[in-house]
TrEMBL record:
<protein>
    <recommendedName>
        <fullName>High frequency lysogenization protein HflD homolog</fullName>
    </recommendedName>
</protein>
<dbReference type="GO" id="GO:0005737">
    <property type="term" value="C:cytoplasm"/>
</dbReference>
<keyword id="KW-0963">Cytoplasm</keyword>
<keyword id="KW-0472">Membrane</keyword>
<keyword id="KW-1003">Cell membrane</keyword>
<dbReference type="InterPro" id="IPR035932">
    <property type="entry name" value="HflD-like_sf"/>
</dbReference>
<dbReference type="InterPro" id="IPR007451">
    <property type="entry name" value="HflD"/>
</dbReference>
<dbReference type="Pfam" id="PF04356">
    <property type="entry name" value="DUF489"/>
</dbReference>
<dbReference type="GO" id="GO:0005886">
    <property type="term" value="C:plasma membrane"/>
</dbReference>
<comment type="similarity">
    <text>Belongs to the HflD family.</text>
</comment>
Amino acid sequence: MTPSTPIHPAPDTPTARQALALAGVFQAASLVDELARTGQVDQRAWETLIRATLDTNPESFEAIYGGHPNNLRRGLEVLEGVTGRRQANPVVLRYGFSLLMLMNKLRGNDAMMDELGRRLTRIQGQAEHFGETHENVVASLGEAYQETLSTLNTRIVVQGDPSLLQSRMMAERVRAILLAGIRFALLWHQQGGRRWKLVFQRGALKKTLDQLG
């Protein structure tokens, strides 16, 4: 067993898929908060989000997050806060639920969905040339978010250290992570995830989180 292999493989159930997709949303929320406050970010969590955003035609559901639930560990830990099992950072929760609201706005805008698809296709070519997490790729992902999703009425205002937020590449990195959050929010909806289920099916979500370890 390699060190990167999780102890618990992900169960292949609709609820587990919804939980993992939602973990991606809240992982993005957590990394935005971390980046805005400290200027640093968990590398494994960051790479998982960027790769998922670029992989618009994955071989399988598991391939989206790199095949290991531990790649979404940060998000799964935040989800435990959503279910009330641990203390949750209210700023991270606000970012996460704002991403879900923004995703719903996007779903109703076919032109913007098409534009994002075209942009991501071009950025995939960049990633093949420079590498998935190269700053040119990150800058393009950030620009894609800025010129599409940030023009909607539902906007996400990021709080943090003003000097850090104004530093080089910070805005692009934050926007790239927010775009990744939208990617996982769309995945969550595709797998049957709905806001009301977070309230009325909290027990099922807790059980799934136990299975995911």
